Amino acid sequence: QEAAKYEKKVMVLDFVTPTPLGNSWGLGGTCVNVGCIPKKLMHQAALLGQALQDSRKFGWQFTEEVKHNWMTMAESVQNYIGSLNWGYRVALREKNVTYENAYGEFVGPHTIKATNKRGVEKLYTAERFLIATGERPRYLGIPGDKEYCISSDDLFSLPYCPGKTLVVGASYVALECAGFLAGLGLDVTVMVRSILLRGFDQDIANKIGEYMEEHGINFIRQFVPIKVEQVEKGTPGRLRVIAKSTKGNQIIEGEYNTVLLAIGRDACTRKIGLDKVGVKINEKTGKIPVNDEEQTNVPYIYAVGDILQDKLELTPLAIQAGRLLVQRLYAGATSKCDYVNVPTTVFTPLEYGACGYSEEAAVEKFGEKNIEVYHSHFWPLEWTVPSRDNNKCYAKIICNIQDNERVIGFHVLGPNAGEVTQGFAAAMKCGLTKEQLDSTVGIHPVCAEV
Amino acid sequence: GKNEYDLLIIGGGSGGLACAKEAAKFGRKVAVLDYVEPSPQGTKWGLGGTCVNVGCIPKKLMHQAALLGSAIKDAQHYGWNIAQPVHHTWSVMAQAVQNYVKSLNWGHRVQLQDKKVKYFNMKGSFSDPHTIRGLTKAGKETIVTAENIVIATGGRPKYPVHIAGALEYGITSDDLFWLKESPGKTPLVYYPFILHLCEIIVYISLTGSSPDVSLECAGFLTGIGLETTVMMRSIPLRGFDQQMASLVTEHMESYGTKFLKRCFPTKVEKSESNRLQVTWKNTDLRTEVTDSFDTVMWAVGRAPDTETLNLETVGVKTNSETGKIIVDASEATSVPNIYAVGDITEGRPELTPTAIAAGKLLAQRLFGQSSELMDYDNVPTTVFTPLEYGCVGLSEEAAVQCYGSDNIEVYHAYYKPLEFTVAERDAAQCYMKMVCLRERDQRILGLHFIGPNAGEVIQGFALGIKCGATYPQLMKTIGIHPTCAEEITKLHITKGSGLDATVTGC
Fold first, then answer.
1. What is the ipTM of this complex?
2. Where is NAD(+) annotated to bind (chain A) (predicted)?
3. CB–CB of A67 and B80 under 8 A?
């Protein structure tokens, strides 16, 4: 969309290879269809379930029995996504960007072959190319995984309630999904191979896990599934999962209605002909290394988004990188995307907002003696009346003693963590120090004032 | 003789307690006098001051109760099956809130004890610059002397005493949070004729320096199902950015609160059915109307609580118009060794966090060899109306007045919180704007945000503004998706351009 502003002739090829179970979706990518948007809406549905319970303590009265209807929610969510797909189609049209619902792959220098759903092939040439194919969920590679398990690609449009669910994985996708499924009243178990939220601050990751466990989610730690069998067909059916311990030979079995795999995502770079034009990729991960101007090793080919090596997999980052790239190419701008201090939020039942270094990373980079960690538990005012946990919410900042006690890491665990973290991220961009933090007056009574 | 205490604080509210606890840290002998004169309706409360007892805390909890009412409606769109009818019981909420407040009163008593601060439940007045006369409820007198004295008695709601019946029949925020029974009866909607059965009228005057309290109260009363009317003589939220103020009231109107604008009451009487009859004049239409309500609440501003302090005896100067105590940048009054913090001081925002910060810094300067003064600039605040409004820095009007409209740029956007989509809620008033200087670095002068969780959104940005944040710096900050706050980092349409400022798409 940005390039079209500069009156360039732009084409977008978008194609969704159906999931093993046959699921597909419209224009907009992961975030819109099977990521941030449906995730946050279902997380909201779960939060509202909690709100219903709280409301009784605040004087609201209604029947004791409150049940959740998956279909009502899924339909509303899908309708909204449909409106976004439509919105993008219209936006591209209005900006004169040519859109083709076809699978693109390089066949030679400056040339792409586009194959549509019906197998019709067309060739296109362009001066420059941008690869932004993103990723898709990884499968375990065990018997029964593709036949019987679902992934986040299937979950948000599932035409039936998933029922008793086993979530395999410890990524934020796994924990967020497990979180809202439990919040909607389902029996949820999470099977974790080793640690939770790899790459995130581990102190906080453990607090998140603890909170989820205390609120009814079962965790099976240090096991991996080795086989999934179908016990009974249905919507949902019944599945038997056999798992082996990572620490020995112990084998366990469990029965679930649904098995959701959330063990990671793989870049969609292996089958788009990159070898034909010489674009180097990391053979192990499939990710594309780029320079600080998002350029691959082939000068006229660029890449943005989840497929980039060593960059965070986030929507706003991809958007910003894409926009700035185009401004540099066609508007003479020089700004590069700033990948430092990119804030993020994990929408688990107890939300986690973060910006900057985790405590471990800070210790590694600067040395334990050179950093100071300030922390505090807090009790959101809104949780007092309904007697919700009074020492689970937590905030910590990590400061670099040698640089004026500059804030290099911000972490908050509590309601509306995303809203809280955004402003702090902006302040960190302005070089926030502990002193400035101390001298800023709080808004009362909100969680962020802590 | 030697003074008994190093520091004596009159007033156990946000400012007073913060100052006392900080001073105690330096090993000083500290005492706090706290006393609550019952309201005209007889309401009183424990240690902690306005915020804890009749301000921020109960207000936010009742606001939360109202928000939960909306959440119940939203939940049904998200698949939760809730059998109708859903209704709200005031006494359950009030008791829960009051119990929590009492736990805070208790908590403060314990904290003072732990920090070895002496607490007197007495009403204090000056005998001389180092001597305070304390009177208990029973009339017993105690004399206390101190090297330094801090006045932190705060304020109390004003009554429009020139309106007949105002004092006898009306309540204020002092009473609202402590009512055991609902201020309005539950509406019996099955009646074929209209009976004003659950009506509350809140009158806010033009001079309110905390006029937001009235809108906040009207907001949550509406939210829990009571028929609420707000009567005001002129503009709401005076002193706040007026564009934002009108969006806030617009939302309240669509939310169900009735507004009687450009009206003022002339008398309040009791009717035979034991309801209250209010007569008022409409300044535009030049008509006079009478109607019945269950409760009349006055929110015409707060007056500093200095009357019984005996300030004239010691020569502490007050502002002749407002009655507030005049202090300098170090919180010192016109009398050496006598200081003042919080709502009682002239020219300061009437906010808990500023009182706390000022109280702490004062103690640090008196006993801790610090010289740091309180910075009252860029203090963020939030109005907890049904659709919340958070802001920091200058309003658009103030910026124009200060720098001239040619020298400022206003970036703005209408946005829709993701959670409103499935809930089918109207986001017409969800709006934000950033007022910046036009010159080279484009420093941010003011940030205004209307939407859910406005306080949480604004807090971090207030920090940024304290660091001198500029527009380019904010634009370099990556957004967190999906949140409402991220829209602030994406502001790019200016008011000057005249372009449509509605955010579209993902």
1. 0.90
2. 169-176, 264
3. yes
